[in-house]
Amino acid sequence: MSAEQNQNSGFSPPAGYQQVESRVFGVSVYAPQPKKTEIDLARSFACPNCGASTVYDVSAGGISCEYCGYIAPISAQRVGKASPDFEFTLETLSQARQGWGVQRQVLHCDACGAEFSIAPDTISTTCAFCASNQVNIITIPEETLRPRYLIPFKIPPEKTLSLAKDWLGKGWCHPPELAGETILHRFYGIYLPFWVFNAHVKADWRAQVGYQQTYRHYNASQKRWETRTRTVWKWEDGQARLDVNDFLVSGSAPKRLSHRILNKLYPFNMKDLVTYAPDFLAGWQAKAYETTLPEAWETGKKAIREEAKNACYRQIPTSQVRNFSMNAVFSDETWRYILLPVYLAAYRYDHKVYQVMINGQTGAIAGSKPVAWWKVWLAIAISLAPGALLTLIGLPLTLVGGAGIVLITIGIILFTIGIIIGFIIYQYAQKSEVP
Questions:
Q1: Which tens digits make up the pLDDT trace of 352-384?
Q2: How far apart, in Å, do the first and last CA atoms of the chain sit?
Q3: Residue 350: count of CB within 10 angstroms of its CB
């Protein structure tokens, strides 16, 4: 129908349809209206008694007001590991809710680019990720998926600094001033985004497996029988099955949040999962995911394949394997989008930024610390000194008698051991400092 005929006849499209652009001049085209994504109206949390802002209180396990003492429980159901999963379908993505479901504002760091959600009345001048004060508040549309579940904070904020002080003071190769009061001033409680995957994996493998075979051989030149060993290679195959449950993949970009440190906070107890409620975010920061579901699943599959490969290798009775191949088939893949509690702090030392994280559920702590390299080089020198000293003493004694050769031999052995010890010391120090 042309546009002119459409107007003259008074034609109106059926319910649920709308007019769209036509590629043919004078012809009207109608298509189904796109489904609107469900976005709940945001709300704020004001105390019903005094009107002040309320926050989620870890100790009380509910919403509380620090001014008048008002406390209210949160109507969230504890679901634990029995929380329902989503299947990998486009339908589940389109039906998922979006936004936080509560009035939030986004703090953007100009130094590292981090963005995290804060309460509307929060005044913050420091980035929790890089300790920069170049932050400003921006407005972004609520287009990210809403988490369905979270684990609430259990470690109270007032305990974080004592945990960090004890941790910073440990280790012989670090500057002694790390345990001082001026390094870390506060931790930021942030709900970090995670993708959780479940799947069944069937891995078929095939490889050449080497077996040691002993046989007797007659040595004609020595006129005697000798025992020798050779490797016999056999083609073998098998199948390993894996049930992957609660496999975590961080939704945060590694360029701003160290995944090496974050992985040290595992495990989280998934039995404490509760249904998401905006009340848990009152007075706390939250971060939306930067790694999308497809990207996270690719990362997860790569790590799960490595676990499947290890499971296949465990079925092989010897350590000699070559020409190994594996075909891993995934089935019953499901996912959940959740928030997990993490305390985060960043501090500067000698013009470098270091991150410290605390598991907000268990209290596990991890991070990076600067290294007093003069201590490391001194320790390496001490480990090398005995071997080097004995070798130097033995050199002139070789002119006198055989005692020098013995000392040189012992010195070389001790020097080699010192090199190994020194390498271990260096690797330990380097890993402590790398974020």
A1: 888 899 999 999 999 988 888 888 999 999 999
A2: 65
A3: 7
